Amino acid sequence: MASWLGRLSMGDTWYNMYSRLLRTKPVGSMGQASDDLTELAEGSAVGLAKVLTTVDLVSLGVGSCVGTGMYVVSGLVAKAMAGPGVILSFIIAAVASILSGVCYAEFGVRVPKTTGSAYTYSYVTVGEFVAFFIGWNLILEYLIGTAAGASALSNMFDSLANHSISNYMITHLGTLRGLGKGEDTYPDLLALFIALLVTVIIALGVRNSVGFNNILNVVNMVVWVFMIIAGLFFITVSNWEGGKFLPYGWSGVMQGAATCFYAFIGFDIIATTGEEAKNPNTSIPYAITASLVACLTAYVSVSIILTLMVPYNLIDGSAPLMEMFAVHGFIWGKYVVAVGSIAGLTVSLLGSLFPMPRVIYAMARDGLLFRCLSHVWALTHTPGIACVVSGSLAAILALLVSLRDLIEMMSIGTLLAYTLVSVCVLLLRYQPDEQTDTHQFRTEDDEGPVPTKEDLIEGSDHDGTSTYHAGGTEGDADDTDFHTGRASLLKRLLGGHYYTIRVRLGMPDSSVRPTPATGRIVTRCTLLFFITSFFLWSTVIYGVEQGSGVGAVFSGLMATLMAGSLVKLMVLILQQPESTRRLPYMAPCVPFVPAAAILVNSYLMLKLSPLTWARFTIWCIIGLLIYGCYGVWHSTLELNAREQQAHASSYQRYDDHLDDTFSPDDNFYPQEQEEKPYQGWSAPEERGHQYQQQNKMEEEDGDPQQSHWEEDEERHGYQSGARDPYPGNSKRAKGRTNFGFDDEDD
Predict the structure, then answer these.
(1) d(CA 360, CA 389)
(2) Is residue 696 within 8 Å of 38, Cβ to Cβ?
(3) Pairing between strand 719-723 and 44-45?
(4) How many other C-beta atoms can be found within 10 angstroms of the C-beta atom of residue 82?
(5) SS3 40
(6) pLDDT digits (tens, 9 = 90+) for 662-695
(7) Reduced to 3 states, what is the DSSP secondary structure of residue 5?
(8) In sequence order, what are the residues at sequence separation of 6 or more whose Cβ sits closer than 8 angstroms to the Cβ of residue 564?
């Protein structure tokens, strides 16, 4: 008996922790929270002005990316990693960014009227632990992005002063060892001052004006055109001849691509403007795609000119675009590029620092970080403490860490965050919709009249916009707008072979709806795919590429087996029915695009240096300690749950003397047992045999307060009274669980 009670206690503890990690934030709570930073006076809160067009969002995305990426990363990667092959590195990094970008765009459209970027999206749709981990890595991205921007500006001013600033600091302050890859670095006091200055500007409430941003982007574009045209007069084709195009081989190109990914970081700032955009459902995804294409064009053209003007081994690592004109004696061109550098790096620096306090504020407001960081200054209406803390940390990093190490650290954190976004999109596409029943499905976004009885018999649509289908053949269902994304694009690519492939792979008919069982299958397959991809690329990189002899052959065989496992997992996912919910924007070719994003991002992460991985591991451990020791226990959802439990206990004590033989559930809520929405990640059917027995006994006792608990808990974001998703089962389990996916968009 004692051992049985011990197992029951351990099961309770495990399930309670499991539920805490995967609880989601109600969509309805986002409306008031998003206006906290815009409160002008007590009792008078206003929303953010919806004034941003798609062009404005593209300008924000390009301005956030192009600064440091064009003026620093191109020369750094060409000199130390890929040579002229930096062109290919940028293209590969762009492909990875576009794959992640379309997933990011769909993720944002699911919860468009919020700020906080991927952190907020994942908290609403996936769960608390994933949201914290994504938010923690976004903080690393913005933190290091700010430090890298300040360091790049410092290097630019040092280059304008003919390196007199760095020489003075080395002479009077000395050098530091061990902070980079063993090379000597000097304490960059100028970068420290720049980071603190920008922190003060942001903390005082000076917002990143769209007009100011557009002006700087115009200056940046004019300088870019000047560099391309002027550089044509100084190019030397021999810089690419005789094996000089790939001096470090394809391994260097891939390593450079991992670092070049930094140059495309910043498009996620577009996703934080959901409240300011006039039409976020369409503007956000298209602006993300357009900004990535514009950045790729700028990077490739500049890299071509740079490597044709200067041999890769003679490129200046700190200010390459300025020095490429100085090498040819064109000093006037150097100062023109300097003007563009100031404009581009300033926008990039503001773009990194501006969203960082907002993410910290959102996490602290939810209780996952220390709540003091959510304090808003009454004078400036900004999260002042979050600004000061984050800006100070960025300034210290800019002071002590070299620009190259900052860029690599930023790439790894963002690659992992974007990989998790792709994982989440893949999971959400195959989960049951809360409002789906077995007879028809209709989303709030659908237009047109409700299907009539004749339509149900004939299986036809009124105007082609309805998402309803009643039976029919596989081909008939697929020819309508019911399937968006994968079916429509793949049918155009495969033509008449599409239906043959569907039959051979065992893909379900489009009228089949996902169930909790199929959702769990996709969840397990996706997580295995994510983990296996890291093992696969580790084997390829460290066993095949760097190995030799028998070890390399054995590693190749292991990699082949793991690749086969990935293919099998993809087939299992394809065999599950996809969600019928329609979104204004949906990533194409799911599950192939998210899977490709996971594979490419994981490969690029593993191409970064081991020292970068060591630093990143330390950062993750710090985050996990904060979440485990503070966040999980002080979360707003946790505090609300405790309050509900206290209220429920007080109600139970108050009603102890009453006759509890009558259950209001039997008469007042007759439809509770019929409408059984999907419970999501922490569904009670996962709890095990002991919980089913316990709930069975509790059901026999009859609890007159059950419906009241459910009503009270739904108000706080938890739904109690877990329901069996299958209509034939009338058992009910008590306890706090969350709906895994609250698809209440509006």
Answers:
(1) 10
(2) no
(3) unpaired
(4) 31
(5) strand
(6) 444 444 444 444 444 444 444 544 444 444 445 5
(7) helix
(8) none
Number of Cβ within 10 Å of residue 512's Cβ equals 14
DSSP 579: P
Distance (Å, whole) CA 87 – CA 74: 9
Show the CA angle centred on residue 378, arms to residues 136 and 347, nearest 5°.
50
> For the whole model, what pTM was predicted?
0.72
Cα 293 to Cα 104, 150, 268, 304, distances in angstroms: 16, 26, 14, 17
Whether omega before 591 lies within 30 degrees of 0, making that bond cis, reads yes
Q: Is 652 exposed, middle or buried (0-12, 13-18, 19+ CB in 10 A)?
A: middle
Other Cβ atoms less than 10 A from the Cβ of 158: the count is 21
Count Cα neighbours of 189 within 13 Å in the Cβ-side half-sphere.
10
Q: What's the Rg (C-alpha) of the chain?
A: 28
β-pairing, 719-723 vs 732-737, is antiparallel
- In sequence order, the β-bridge partners of residue 41 are 44
> pLDDT, tens digit, for every residue of 539-582?
999 888 887 788 889 999 999 999 999 999 999 999 999 888 88
CA dist., res. 631 & res. 649, Å (int): 25
User: Quick count: other Cβ atoms within 10 Å of Cβ 356?
Assistant: 27
E strands in 293-364: none
CB burial string 279-294: b at 16+ within 10 A, e below: ebbebbbbbbbbbbeb
Q: Is the pLDDT of residue 36 over 80?
A: no
| Structure tokens that stand for 622 in this block | 């710090």
Structure tokens at 33: 């929270």
Nearest to 404 by CA among 182, 189, 169, 617: 182
Could you tell me which of 281, 361, 422, 430 has the C-alpha nearest to residue 740?
430
Q: Higher-confidence residue: 509 or 206?
A: 509
Classify the C-alpha dihedral 77-82-84-89 as positive or negative. negative
| CA proximity to 413, closest of 619, 266, 270 | 619
Q: Which helix (H) or strand (E) holds 632?
A: helix 632-634
Least confidently predicted of 85-89, 533-537, 727-731:
727-731
Residue 448's CB is within 10 A of a number of other CB atoms, namely 14
Task: Look at phi and psi of residue 116 and say left if phi exceeds 0, alpha if psi is from -120 to 50, else beta.
Answer: left
pLDDT of residue 207: 53
Q: What is the DSSP string of 18-29?
A: HHHHT----GGG
With residues binned 3-state (H G I as helix, E B as strand, rest as coil), the percentages for the chain, rounded to 5, are 65, 5, 30
Contacts of 184 (CB under 8 A, 6+ apart): 175, 176, 177
Rounded Cα–Cα distance for residues 81 and 253 (Å): 7
Distance CA 54, CA 68 (A): 23
Residue that has been written with the tokens 């970008």 in this structure: 101
What pLDDT is attached to residue 6?
52
pLDDT tens digit sequence for 156-199: 888 888 888 888 888 887 776 645 444 567 788 999 999 998 88
User: Would you say residue 536 has pLDDT above 70?
Assistant: yes
Can you tell me the mean pLDDT for 683-709? Answer: 47
Q: Kindly list the structural domains of the chain, giving each domain's residue range(s) and its CATH number in brackets, ordered by start.
A: 52-429+577-643 (1.20.1740.10)
CA 392 from centre of chain: 25
